[in-house]
Amino acid sequence: MKYTTIIFDLDGTLLNTLADLAAATNHALAEHKLPQRTTDEVRQFVGNGIRKLIERAVPADTPAELQEEVFASFNKYYKQHCADSTRPYDGVPQLLQQLRTAGCCTAIVSNKADYGVQALAKQYFNGQLDAACGERAGIAKKPAPDMLLAIMQQLKAEPASTIYIGDSDTDIATASNAGVDCIGACWGFRGRAFLEAHGAKLLAETVGDIWKLIK
Q1: What is the CATH number of the domain that holds 116?
Q2: Same domain for 76 and 156?
Q3: Which one GO biological process term can you cite for this protein (predicted)?
Q4: Res 1: pLDDT
Q5: Which of 81, 103, 128 is the last residue of a domain?
Q6: Are residues 41 and 140 in the same domain?
Q7: pLDDT at 42
Q8: Do residues 183 and 196 both lie within one domain?
Q9: Is residue 127 within 8 Å of residue 147, measured between CB atoms?
Q10: pLDDT at residue 196, as a whole number
Q11: pLDDT for the residue numbered 165
């Protein structure tokens, strides 16, 4: 195996979380009498953390204080509803088991709030991961390499044997900033053309392609 430490983004890579993210966004907007967003709009807003999602979802002239209230409303709702419609992409549990059987370390590094990462990782991938890290205070979020490097240090992983897998330009930049290879997940929230346009050199059309690329 060329790569023995396989680190994944979460939203749009391991889990299809879009419906629950859109529902939480629109719940928070409605609570403050702000216009609703379509699921496709939310798809474009995600990837840089919840605060950035809310900043993009509210009208451009929304005061900072109101943005904070919408942010708080989102978090309160999402903590209770983060798994209502969320499901692993086809083949993900099997891939993780295949990697574990081959002796690889597996982990998640995501800009999703850490409470969501931990809850969803436990619910869907319990026993299939060595580590999981979401956005938290005191560590810079992606595309800064800090979270990825921290997980690599925790797993005693070398850059040459580590690969990061994600579905967005943020993930491609994160891998580059950390000095590790990257696979673009074409089934995720952005798609193949977007990933190619943002410099992805390795692309997986399906979850099953990950195994072939890693070997």
Answers
A1: 3.40.50.1000
A2: no
A3: DNA repair
A4: 82
A5: 81
A6: no
A7: 97
A8: yes
A9: no
A10: 96
A11: 98
Kindly report the pTM of this predicted structure: 0.95
Give the residues of the chain that fall short of pLDDT 70: none
CA distance 154 to 7: 12
Rounded Cα–Cα distance for residues 166 and 157 (Å):
18
Tokens for 165? 């897998």
- Using a 10 angstrom Cβ sphere, with 0-12 exposed, 13-18 middle and 19 or more buried, the burial of residue 21 is buried
Q: What is the pLDDT of residue 184?
A: 98
CB 168 within 8 A of CB 190: yes
Domain end call among 48, 81, 114: 81
Total structural domains in the chain?
A: 2
160-189 per-residue burial string, b: 16 or more CB within 10 A, e: under 16: ebbbbbbbbbbbbbbbeebebbbbbbbbbb
pLDDT at 12: 97
The residue segments making up the domain with residue 95 are 5-16+87-214
Query: What is the model's pLDDT at position 171?
Result: 97
How far is the C-alpha of 202 from the C-alpha of 181, rounded, in Å? 9
Which of 39, 32, 37 minimizes the C-alpha distance to 16? 39
pLDDT at 215: 83
